[in-house]
Specification:
The complex is a heterodimer. Chain A is mainly alpha-helical. Chain A has four helices and no strands. The chains are: A mainly alpha, B mainly alpha. The interface between A and B is medium-sized, with 31 and 33 residues.
Protein backbone atom coordinates (compact mmCIF):
# COMPACT_ATOMS: atom_id res chain seq x y z
CA UNK A 1 0.00 0.00 0.00
CA UNK A 2 1.36 3.36 -1.00
CA UNK A 3 1.06 6.04 1.63
CA UNK A 4 2.59 8.73 -0.55
CA UNK A 5 3.49 11.98 1.12
CA UNK A 6 0.58 12.08 3.52
CA UNK A 7 1.37 13.98 6.71
CA UNK A 8 2.09 11.80 9.71
CA UNK A 9 0.88 12.19 13.26
CA UNK A 10 2.13 13.48 15.63
CA UNK A 11 3.14 16.92 14.45
CA UNK A 12 5.63 17.90 17.10
CA UNK A 13 5.17 21.55 16.24
CA UNK A 14 1.46 21.65 17.13
CA UNK A 15 2.05 20.70 20.74
CA UNK A 16 2.71 23.28 23.41
CA UNK A 17 6.08 22.45 24.98
CA UNK A 18 5.54 20.80 28.36
CA UNK A 19 8.05 20.03 31.11
CA UNK A 20 7.67 16.30 30.39
CA UNK A 21 8.42 16.54 26.67
CA UNK A 22 11.12 19.20 26.98
CA UNK A 23 13.01 17.23 29.64
CA UNK A 24 12.69 14.06 27.58
CA UNK A 25 14.24 15.75 24.54
CA UNK A 26 16.91 17.32 26.75
CA UNK A 27 17.84 13.85 28.03
CA UNK A 28 18.66 12.74 24.50
CA UNK A 29 20.37 16.00 23.66
CA UNK A 30 22.60 15.92 26.74
CA UNK A 31 23.39 12.27 26.00
CA UNK A 32 24.71 13.29 22.58
CA UNK A 33 26.63 16.21 24.13
CA UNK A 34 28.25 13.83 26.63
CA UNK A 35 29.17 11.37 23.90
CA UNK A 36 30.92 14.16 21.98
CA UNK A 37 32.52 15.33 25.24
CA UNK A 38 34.17 11.93 25.73
CA UNK A 39 36.49 12.97 22.88
CA UNK A 40 38.10 15.42 25.29
CA UNK A 41 38.33 12.83 28.06
CA UNK A 42 40.09 10.41 25.72
CA UNK A 43 42.37 13.19 24.44
CA UNK A 44 43.30 14.12 28.04
CA UNK A 45 44.16 10.53 29.04
CA UNK A 46 46.04 9.75 25.82
CA UNK A 47 47.97 13.03 26.14
CA UNK A 48 48.94 12.12 29.71
CA UNK A 49 50.06 8.70 28.49
CA UNK A 50 52.18 10.25 25.74
CA UNK A 51 54.30 12.48 27.95
CA UNK A 52 54.71 15.87 29.65
CA UNK A 53 54.65 17.95 26.42
CA UNK A 54 51.39 16.62 25.02
CA UNK A 55 49.89 16.68 28.52
CA UNK A 56 50.82 20.37 28.86
CA UNK A 57 49.12 21.04 25.50
CA UNK A 58 45.97 19.25 26.66
CA UNK A 59 45.95 21.17 29.94
CA UNK A 60 46.46 24.46 28.08
CA UNK A 61 43.46 23.73 25.87
CA UNK A 62 41.31 22.75 28.86
CA UNK A 63 42.26 25.95 30.69
CA UNK A 64 41.60 28.18 27.65
CA UNK A 65 38.36 30.14 27.25
CA UNK A 66 37.04 27.66 24.72
CA UNK A 67 38.11 24.74 26.89
CA UNK A 68 36.39 26.13 29.97
CA UNK A 69 33.26 26.97 27.98
CA UNK A 70 33.07 23.41 26.59
CA UNK A 71 33.83 21.95 30.00
CA UNK A 72 31.06 24.03 31.55
CA UNK A 73 28.55 22.82 28.97
CA UNK A 74 29.76 19.29 29.52
CA UNK A 75 29.29 19.61 33.30
CA UNK A 76 25.71 20.87 32.88
CA UNK A 77 24.97 18.01 30.46
CA UNK A 78 26.55 15.46 32.82
CA UNK A 79 24.60 16.54 35.89
CA UNK A 80 21.35 16.83 33.93
CA UNK A 81 21.75 13.41 32.31
CA UNK A 82 22.75 11.93 35.69
CA UNK A 83 19.78 13.40 37.58
CA UNK A 84 17.25 12.70 34.85
CA UNK A 85 18.78 9.25 34.33
CA UNK A 86 18.06 8.42 37.97
CA UNK A 87 14.49 9.67 37.36
CA UNK A 88 14.29 7.27 34.41
CA UNK A 89 15.60 4.39 36.54
CA UNK A 90 12.87 5.11 39.13
CA UNK A 91 10.26 4.93 36.34
CA UNK A 92 11.82 1.65 35.24
CA UNK A 93 11.24 0.41 38.79
CA UNK A 94 7.58 1.41 38.41
CA UNK A 95 7.78 4.45 40.69
CA UNK A 96 6.58 8.04 40.31
CA UNK A 97 4.11 7.84 37.43
CA UNK A 98 1.51 10.21 38.91
CA UNK A 99 1.34 13.45 36.93
CA UNK A 100 2.23 15.48 40.01
CA UNK A 101 5.26 13.29 40.76
CA UNK A 102 6.42 13.51 37.14
CA UNK A 103 6.23 17.31 37.22
CA UNK A 104 7.85 17.63 40.64
CA UNK A 105 10.57 15.13 39.65
CA UNK A 106 11.26 17.19 36.54
CA UNK A 107 11.61 20.38 38.55
CA UNK A 108 13.82 18.47 41.00
CA UNK A 109 16.08 17.39 38.13
CA UNK A 110 16.47 20.99 36.95
CA UNK A 111 17.23 22.21 40.47
CA UNK A 112 19.72 19.36 41.04
CA UNK A 113 21.43 20.16 37.74
CA UNK A 114 21.84 23.81 38.71
CA UNK A 115 22.99 23.11 42.26
CA UNK A 116 25.48 20.36 41.31
CA UNK A 117 26.93 22.44 38.45
CA UNK A 118 27.31 25.44 40.73
CA UNK A 119 28.91 23.35 43.50
CA UNK A 120 31.34 21.70 41.09
CA UNK A 121 32.50 25.00 39.61
CA UNK A 122 32.72 26.67 43.00
CA UNK A 123 34.89 23.78 44.15
CA UNK A 124 36.88 24.07 40.93
CA UNK A 125 37.60 27.74 41.51
CA UNK A 126 38.51 27.11 45.13
CA UNK A 127 35.61 28.82 46.84
CA UNK A 128 34.89 25.69 48.82
CA UNK A 129 36.70 22.44 49.58
CA UNK A 130 40.28 21.72 48.67
CA UNK A 131 40.30 22.99 45.07
CA UNK A 132 42.98 25.50 44.16
CA UNK B 1 -5.89 -14.40 25.17
CA UNK B 2 -2.38 -14.20 23.84
CA UNK B 3 -1.57 -14.84 20.21
CA UNK B 4 2.06 -15.61 21.00
CA UNK B 5 3.23 -19.17 20.59
CA UNK B 6 4.56 -20.99 23.67
CA UNK B 7 8.01 -21.12 22.07
CA UNK B 8 7.88 -17.38 21.37
CA UNK B 9 6.98 -16.70 24.97
CA UNK B 10 9.85 -18.78 26.29
CA UNK B 11 12.38 -17.12 24.02
CA UNK B 12 11.00 -13.66 24.80
CA UNK B 13 12.72 -12.11 21.82
CA UNK B 14 9.84 -10.24 20.18
CA UNK B 15 9.84 -8.84 16.66
CA UNK B 16 13.30 -7.29 16.89
CA UNK B 17 14.78 -10.73 17.71
CA UNK B 18 16.87 -9.44 20.56
CA UNK B 19 14.40 -9.22 23.44
CA UNK B 20 15.31 -6.83 26.22
CA UNK B 21 19.11 -7.21 25.86
CA UNK B 22 19.69 -3.66 24.58
CA UNK B 23 17.32 -2.05 27.07
CA UNK B 24 18.76 -4.04 29.97
CA UNK B 25 22.41 -3.31 29.07
CA UNK B 26 21.58 0.40 28.93
CA UNK B 27 20.12 0.24 32.47
CA UNK B 28 22.99 -1.83 33.89
CA UNK B 29 25.59 0.61 32.52
CA UNK B 30 23.46 3.56 33.72
CA UNK B 31 23.40 2.21 37.28
CA UNK B 32 27.16 1.60 37.19
CA UNK B 33 27.78 5.12 35.88
CA UNK B 34 25.98 6.88 38.73
CA UNK B 35 28.73 6.31 41.35
CA UNK B 36 31.51 6.24 38.74
CA UNK B 37 30.57 9.64 37.29
CA UNK B 38 30.30 11.26 40.73
CA UNK B 39 33.65 9.78 41.75
CA UNK B 40 35.20 11.01 38.49
CA UNK B 41 33.96 14.59 38.90
CA UNK B 42 35.20 14.70 42.51
CA UNK B 43 38.59 13.29 41.44
CA UNK B 44 39.03 15.74 38.58
CA UNK B 45 38.17 18.63 40.92
CA UNK B 46 40.84 17.46 43.35
CA UNK B 47 43.34 17.30 40.45
CA UNK B 48 42.83 20.91 39.34
CA UNK B 49 46.19 22.64 39.31
CA UNK B 50 48.11 19.37 39.67
CA UNK B 51 51.23 19.00 37.52
CA UNK B 52 52.06 16.16 35.13
CA UNK B 53 53.82 13.98 37.73
CA UNK B 54 51.01 14.29 40.27
CA UNK B 55 48.30 13.62 37.67
CA UNK B 56 49.95 10.56 36.15
CA UNK B 57 50.85 9.23 39.61
CA UNK B 58 47.16 9.47 40.51
CA UNK B 59 45.97 7.83 37.26
CA UNK B 60 48.45 4.99 37.81
CA UNK B 61 47.39 4.14 41.35
CA UNK B 62 45.49 0.83 41.53
CA UNK B 63 42.10 2.13 42.67
CA UNK B 64 41.89 5.17 40.34
CA UNK B 65 43.24 3.11 37.42
CA UNK B 66 40.65 0.35 37.86
CA UNK B 67 37.80 2.83 38.45
CA UNK B 68 38.88 4.85 35.40
CA UNK B 69 38.85 1.72 33.23
CA UNK B 70 35.41 0.79 34.57
CA UNK B 71 34.20 4.35 33.92
CA UNK B 72 35.54 4.33 30.37
CA UNK B 73 34.10 0.90 29.58
CA UNK B 74 30.65 1.71 30.99
CA UNK B 75 30.65 5.17 29.38
CA UNK B 76 31.42 4.01 25.86
CA UNK B 77 29.11 0.99 26.12
CA UNK B 78 26.31 3.26 27.35
CA UNK B 79 27.05 5.96 24.75
CA UNK B 80 27.02 3.45 21.92
CA UNK B 81 23.67 2.00 23.06
CA UNK B 82 22.12 5.45 23.44
CA UNK B 83 23.42 6.88 20.15
CA UNK B 84 22.19 3.75 18.36
CA UNK B 85 18.62 4.42 19.54
CA UNK B 86 18.83 8.07 18.49
CA UNK B 87 20.05 7.07 15.02
CA UNK B 88 17.37 4.38 14.71
CA UNK B 89 14.71 6.97 15.54
CA UNK B 90 15.82 9.83 13.32
CA UNK B 91 17.75 8.40 10.36
CA UNK B 92 15.20 6.93 7.97
CA UNK B 93 17.43 5.85 5.09
CA UNK B 94 18.28 2.21 5.84
CA UNK B 95 21.78 2.29 4.35
CA UNK B 96 22.69 5.56 6.01
CA UNK B 97 21.26 4.34 9.34
CA UNK B 98 23.30 1.14 9.23
CA UNK B 99 26.47 3.04 8.26
CA UNK B 100 25.96 5.59 11.04
CA UNK B 101 25.33 2.91 13.68
CA UNK B 102 28.42 0.99 12.60
CA UNK B 103 30.47 4.20 12.66
CA UNK B 104 29.28 4.92 16.21
CA UNK B 105 30.07 1.37 17.34
CA UNK B 106 33.56 1.44 15.82
CA UNK B 107 34.28 4.95 17.14
CA UNK B 108 33.19 4.01 20.67
CA UNK B 109 35.34 0.88 20.58
CA UNK B 110 38.41 2.72 19.26
CA UNK B 111 38.06 5.66 21.67
CA UNK B 112 37.39 3.43 24.65
CA UNK B 113 40.29 1.15 23.82
CA UNK B 114 42.66 4.10 23.28
CA UNK B 115 41.75 5.62 26.65
CA UNK B 116 41.99 2.29 28.51
CA UNK B 117 45.37 1.67 26.89
CA UNK B 118 46.44 5.15 28.02
CA UNK B 119 45.47 4.38 31.62
CA UNK B 120 47.29 1.03 31.53
CA UNK B 121 50.41 2.58 29.99
CA UNK B 122 50.53 5.22 32.73
CA UNK B 123 49.87 2.59 35.40
CA UNK B 124 52.60 0.20 34.25
CA UNK B 125 55.25 2.69 33.15
CA UNK B 126 54.80 5.54 35.61
Amino acid sequence: MSTGKRPLSPHLQVYRPQITSVLSILHRFTGIVLAVGTLHLVYWIVAAAQGPESFAAAQAFTASWLGRFLLFGWTVALFYHLANGIRHLLWDAGLGFELRQVTLGGIGVLVATGVLTLLAWMAGYGFIGSGS
Amino acid sequence: MSLRSPLGRVRGLGSAKEGTAHWWAQRVTAIALVPLALWFVASILSLIGADYATTTAWIGMPVPAVLLILLLTATFYHAQLGLQVVLEDYVHNEGLKLAAILLVKFACLVLGLAAVFGVLKIAFQG
